[in-house]
Give the backbone structure.
Amino acid sequence: MIKKQANLDATTTEDLLQQLRVLVYANADLTMEGIDAVLTREGPVLMGDARFAVSQSEARYRHLIKRMSALVVELAPNGEIIYLNDVITHITGFSAVELIGRNWLDMLLPIHESMDISTLRRSFLESGELNDFRTSIRSCDGRRKFFSWNSVNVHDADGLIERVIYFGINITSQVFAEQELSIAAIAFESQEGMIVTDANGVILRVNSAFTTITGYTAEETIGKNPRILKSGHQSADFYAAMWTDINNNGAWSGEIWNRRKNGECYPERLTITAVKGANGIITNYVGTLADITMSMSAAEKIKHLAFYDPLTDLPNRLLLRDRLKPALASSKRSGRLGALLFIDMDDFKTLNDSLGHDMGDLLLQQVARRLELCMREGDTVARLGGDEFVVMLEDLSERSLEAATQTEIIGHKILADLNRPYQLAMHYYHCTPSIGAILFNEHEQSVDELLKQADIAMYQAKASGRNTLRFFDPQMQISIDTRVALEADLRLALAENQFELYFQPQVNYNRQIIGAEVLIRWQHPQRGLISPADFIPLAEGTGLILAIGQWVLEMACARIKMWECSEHTQHLLLAVNVSARQFHQTDFIEQVNLILRHSAINPNRLKLELTESLVLDNIDDTILKMNALRESGISFSMDDFGTGYSSLSSLKKLPLDQLKIDQSFVRDISIDPDDAVIVQTIIDMAKNLGMGVIAEGVETEAQRDFLEKQGCPLFQGYLFSKPMPIKQFEQLLELS
């Protein structure tokens, strides 16, 4: 029996079920009010029947949701998941147990970085229903899946949101495709020009970089053939080979010249790729192109710098060598001679030192221009560096004499042109060249050998007084080779102690030995005894004289120390020659004093012989050093006196103890009145200046008698003894 009923006003079955569903969910409240039935337009319905109807409706709803391919999720108004279908668990990998009860809003991620997910959260909490929006969800394996969502709100009897049902479609593939399209679009609009054609070469699309490079807009190119860019620089064979590569290999890449819309031709790096369909048939061609005008220009500049002198813009040593090689081959093939002229500007260092390097550079530039004007067509003028230039002449006569004459004519023309004054800013400057020449016609001659021989010839020109031309002399090559070998042996001699001291006695008028001059000899293991005249100049030139000079000084002091132990030798005075290079060392005084301390000798037993030219070079510095060493007890003798240009005023300043008359005056004093007068003058000068005097090179009694009569008290020469090793010298001491 119905005790109390409620009225429902529903026009459709779905509306009725919705109202019944509300009643079922509100069952507790209805029962408390004593309602056990509802009245519908169809009649009264018991609450139990209502529950059954709702239950069946819910079952059909759940069955429908499960069979849907879309994602379905039911949410409470706060976003908590209360139901979801199997599609979600399948896509995300999470089970329903893991997801139900979680807040759905926490699972949503922005689809891209610019998306603000917090705005979505606020909208949901305000209205529940959100439509047509995209988010991503991270699956259990960490990968992101993308979805498009729509929703519907479910309201209760009071019109409040009871549930929100969201329907999602998996758009992951679509998003990835859009991203790839976006990337492709960006790539297409890259810095490189791009052009797409169909299989027939009709242009379908170009990018903005293409327009920038070629000047043609998309409207002007689409529908046309890329031949509109053809410059005419490449032949038909070039294009045939290019298309053969594309058809056989699917692509071609290389450099090509094309023409812009304004008619300008430009270099381009081009890559053409064939695009094939699934059936393997070519559907399109894609070309990428880059304007390489700037890079090609930079490459040309780099190449120019590698082969040309930056100051004069003449070929440099490297390019000269490259040109010499084929010139040698051509000379041998044709039988016609060629020539090298090695040019060096005389006293160029003086110009740099006096007017500065800027003026020196200006001179070199003017020399370069003058040399170019002297050249015939096909000849080469190069700058090796500094003030050295080389001219290469080709296609001279087949006969050596005529070729030499041709070379000499060109050489004298160069001499005349380079002798003309140079206008260097505000200065007029005169500079002369020295030129060495060498003919060539043998392919077997090496480039280095030719350059070396031309260089040697140039030094022959300098030795001949400069401002002249000299041809290479093979004998000079032999001398240079000998000198090079001797230098190597000289260095070895120092290391292996091959030097030996010889002693030439110095005697008084009674022929008593009062000392000796120390002279160095070189006992070569293969060549025997080598004269100082052969190796001292070489030692001076190479700087080895410094080590040799120090060795001589150390050995001389060691010998003085030994002689101090005997009353027969402790009075002896040793004279040691000092070279200009050795004396002008800044620490020469310290070196000598260190040797004195180590040897612990009486310094009064040591005399240093200095040449006239040495003491006059920077005379103030010379006087300072001589005075410092005299304070240590060392005495000084001026060697080879009379051969230089000492003035009386200079001689008076120098703290000398002795003048040594050069043997060139002594040799002819008995037969040459002039030499006799010179010797007599030197002796008188020494006496007047309070100096001692000794004559060297005394070989005859007549010479000795003359010197003694003029008041010369000391002598040295072959009349008394030739230079000898220490053993023989000490034997001579015992005999005397």
